[in-house]
Amino acid sequence: MDEVIAGRDGPNLREKAYDRFTHHLLARDIRPGQFVSQRQLVELTGLSLAAIRELIPRLESEGLIKTVPQRGMQVAHVDLNLIRDAFQFRLFMEREAVAIFTVEASDATLVRLRQDHESVVAEASIQEGGITPDLVVRAQAVDWDLHWTIIASLGNAIIADAYRVNSIKVRLIRQEQTLLSDTLVMPVMREHLAIIKAIETRDPIQAVAAIDEHINSARSRALGLR
Question: Residue ranges of the HTH gntR-type domain (predicted)?
Answer without folding.
Answer: 11-78
